[in-house]
Structures are given as structure tokens and as C-alpha cells.
Amino acid sequence: MESNIKDTYRTLKNPSEEILYKDRKSKFYGYAFPLISEESVKPIIEGLRKKYHTAGHVCYAWQLGVGNITYRTNDDGEPNNSSGMPIYGQIKTFEVTNVLVAVPRIFGGVKLGVGGLIQAYKTTAQLTLENSDIIEKILETYFQLNFEYSEMDKVMRIIKQHNLKLTVQKMELQCEFQFSCRKSMENQVLDIFKKIHRVSIKKLNF
């Protein structure tokens, strides 16, 4: 059924404030960032390395996408799966996406062991996300309409009826509109416009 399509997701409104977690003199600094693309990760991590130049490790995890999800974890020299995966576990627990959580660690002279590291990175990531501004966003689909000016009234009536958001309006003899709707309404909107003579509709991929 159309209404079962999930078209909302949770993400961060803005970068979080720094969170400090201490365990046996080691300091773990937690940060969370909204993420647009994988390419955004490297400059953020490099920025944290400069800020915490005495940190032996800057471990992190990120996730992008809704439905078709990609993610990465990075232990940055800590024992395998002792840091990146516990951080990613909290991203999943908080059900957020398009997000990067990074934790620079400054060693305090006492080894924590793998179990201690897992707990420390998990707790830092948890505290960071607890103190982040998490918001819900709506997934949208974008369309382009091409039609003759004589169909304007019909087109505008449908746009108002279904609360569609117009983003581009070119009104000439041959009109072009671009609009968006909730993803869950995508097929319904396509069907409505396809039934109108002299109106063509196509889905836009941004």
C-alpha cells in the first residue's frame, strides 16, 4: 500500500557541542555532524586532528541514506571493532542518518583493554547524540510538468488540493512547473497528472 512507504527520517539539525567523557585519565571528545556526502567526512576529521593534535586516535562512524543506506566505521589504530563499531551502534540506536559521529581520544597513560575501549567509545557516542539536536525530515520526490496554458486551471487545482510545493513556474503558451511532494504520495501524484490530456509529467533526479 502507498501509505506504508516510509518518507521521514531522523537526522541532526546542526553540529553538536563538544562532549567530554573520561575513563582512567583517557579523555574522549565526542562530536556529531550532519552529513551531506561521503566527501564531507575527510575535512571534518582533519579539522578534529588539528584541534586535538595530541590525540592518538580520531575514531568515527558515519551513515548516509534512507532505505538504501551506506555506512563506514574507522578504528584509526585502536584494536579492531573496539571504537568505530560501538560508535556506529549508537547511530543505529538513535535511528539517525546523514550523520557523522567522531571521537578523538587523548591517552591518559592507563590501557583500558578492548572491553574498556568499547564501553568508552559507546558511551561517548551515546552522550554526544543525547546532547544533539535531532530532527525529523520528510523525504520528497520532485517532478516536472509540461502543459499548455489552457490546462492551467486544472493543474493549479490539483496542486492546491494535494498541497504540492511549487519550486519553478514558467507560464507561457507552453508552461513548465516543477514541484515536490512527500515520497509516500509519489505514485498517486503521477497517476493524477497522467490522466490529464495535454499534460506531461516526469520525475526529476537531483
Keywords:
206 residues; 28% helix; five-stranded antiparallel β-sheet; Ribosomal Protein S5, domain 2; Alpha-Beta Plaits; alpha+beta; 2 domains; elongated; 5 helices
Descriptive notes:
This protein is an alpha+beta fold and about 210 residues long. The chain has 2 domains: about 1-135, Ribosomal Protein S5, domain 2, CATH 3.30.230; about 140-205, Alpha-Beta Plaits. The protein is built from 5 helices and 11 strands; from the N terminus they run E-E-E-H-E-E-H-E-H-E-E-H-E-E-H-E. The strands form 3 sheets. It has a 5-stranded antiparallel beta sheet with strand order 2-3-6-4-5, with helices on both faces. Strands 9-10-8-11 form a 4-stranded antiparallel beta sheet, covered by helices on one side. Strand 9 and strand 10 form a beta hairpin. Helix 2 runs parallel beside helix 3. The longest helix is centred in the middle third of the chain and has 18 residues, at about 115-130. It is elongated. The two termini are about 25 Å apart.
Summed up, what is this model?
InterPro entries: Impact (IPR023582), Impact_N (IPR001498), Impact_N_sf (IPR036956), Ribosomal_Su5_D2-typ_SF (IPR020568). The chain is an alpha+beta fold.
Task: Break the fold down into its secondary structure elements and pairings.
Blueprint: E1 8-12, E2 19-23, E3 26-34, H1 41-51, E4 57-64, E5 70-74, H2 84-93, E6 99-106, H3 113-130, E7 134-138, E8 140-148, H4 152-161, E9 165-170, E10 174-182, H5 186-194, E11 199-204
Antiparallel strand pairs: 1-7, 2-3, 3-6, 4-5, 4-6, 8-10, 8-11, 9-10
Helix pairs in contact: 2-3
